[in-house]
Amino acid sequence: MFCRNQTARATVARGSALEMEIRRGKFRKSLFLDTSQDTDIQKKIDHEIRMRDGACKLLAACSQRDQALEAAKSLQTCSTRIMAYMSELQRMKEAQVMQKVTRRSSDAGPMDDRLPCKGRVAISDLRIPLMWKDTEYFKNKGELHRCAVFCLLQLGGEIFDTDMVIVDRTLTDICFDNTVVFNEASPGFELRVELYSCCSEDDYSAGSTPRKLASKLSSSLGRSSGKKLRAAMEPGPCSPVSNGGAAPLLLPVPSVPGPKYHLLAHTTLSLLHIQDSFRTHDLTISGNEECSYWLPLYGSVCCRLAAQPHCMNQQMMSGCLKVKQLGGDPQSWTKVHAVLKGTSLSCFHRQEDVNANVEPAFTISINKDTRIRVSEKDPESKAQSVCISNQYGGEEVTHTLTTESRDDTHRWMEAFWQHFYDMSQWKQCCDDLMKIELPSPRKPAPVTPKQGSLYHEMAPLATPSCEGLLLQDNAVSAEIRALLSSYYNDR
């Protein structure tokens, strides 16, 4: 424990240095083993750093409130993802070290290396009720307080963000219609839900534009117009440019002038909270009424949390079996193609019937109350048998199966034990197959540009009809346009 805490403190202390190593391509080599997983996460970190740098530039160049709020949201999301990926790399390294120590331990006894299957976890219909004062909501008195809010949803190394919602006293609930699905969750997952808020009434003008960008714009627009534009865009003493123009640091979120999102509330959901229905969960609230980003939360969040373990919707084992007929001739055996999936062993007449979606000839229940054992060699079939017993209406019903060889029997028994283990870990998620609706794809960018965006404000400046405003630096124009265009296309 002491070693782990010491490692965690050292990781936080050198957070900025870690990012510099990431930028130089040395992060993986200096801290982590060169594995395919490390490489994949490294690529994700590199991608998020590029996206974060772009969000910083975009935020500094925004002249409209809506664009500034969206850019700040992207900046917060990218920074959170970078930290999550770094933590995942650190966790992988610790697991690799522990694995080596375990292998080298001479006195280590036999260990059960069985792991539960993964699964899909989906959260949808997020509703966060508000508790306005009577004078604010019913009598519409007092100053209209308006905030921009969104949620970050994190499970392991996967982080998703919801749409941004503008909230004021006309709303009784903060509603997010997004459906978020995590595809590689384990039964011990922890889904963290974070609600971020930002006062949308502050002034987010073009004064946050960096000096370098302002200088290039001024030279592109001409001497007269450029001088006025540069004077309007001159950065203040708190600008990153005035502090030396260095790249934004990883810890904390880069200090770029403009709107700032703050953590307003959070909660952590686990396997115990999963139920195939709309449920209410407690929220931990941060801040107070003195904060500009404050909203009168009721203290709870409502959502639907569902899960589909792979053992419930994927074939865990399949193959040919012989099943002894119940109540018939003791020597009467039926050859079937069996599929172990969910809470049943489905038996088909032919293997082709499985892909053709034909109803099985019969099914044998496989659940947490099922008992399975291997019998001695059957004198009639001269093979080892597998007995599956279930309770039906207080009466025990046993199905006897045989395989073609002892190795096949062993493989089927391993599949059954793994299936039971998966069910014991996923618990209520294996009672019935829960429904998960796939999230609807993001709406494509509209053909008509968003009114007031910097990208489209600059477009008329490039037309020859604007006398004296013809862009002279094509490289600068292309760079800015590519940045802004990629941002809007990614939405």
Descriptive tags:
491 residues, alpha+beta, 6-stranded antiparallel sheet, 13 helices, 18 strands, 25% strand
The biggest beta sheet is recorded as:
7 strands, antiparallel
Radius of gyration: 30 Å
**Mean pLDDT reading:** 75
Which percent range fits the helix content?
Answer: 25-40%
Instruction: Give a count of the beta strands, DSSP E runs of length 2 or more.
Output: 18
Instruction: Identify the strand order in the major beta sheet.
Output: 15-14-13-12-18-17-16
Determine the structural class based on helices, strands and strand pairing: alpha+beta
The termini sit apart by 42 Å
The quaternary structure here is single chain
How does the overall form come out from the CA principal axes?
Answer: elongated
Uncertain runs with pLDDT below 50, 5 residues or more? 1-34, 106-111, 205-221, 225-252, 447-477
Percent in strands: 25-35%
Structure write-up:
The chain is 34% helix and 25% strand. It has helices spanning 2-13, 15-23, 27-31, 36-61, 65-104, 134-137, 211-221, 223-233, 310-313, 352-355, 406-426, 454-458, 474-490; strands at residues 119-129, 147-155, 158-161, 165-167, 173-176, 180-185, 191-199, 262-269, 278-282, 284-285, 300-309, 317-324, 333-341, 344-348, 362-365, 371-378, 383-392, 395-402. The strands form three sheets. The chain has a seven-stranded antiparallel β-sheet with strand order 15-14-13-12-18-17-16. Strands 2, 3, 4, 7, 8 and 10 form a six-stranded antiparallel β-sheet that branches. Strands 1, 5, 6, 9 and 11 form a five-stranded antiparallel β-sheet that branches. Helix 4 (36-61) packs antiparallel against helix 5 and helix 7 runs antiparallel to helix 8 (223-233). The protein starts with a helix and ends with a helix.
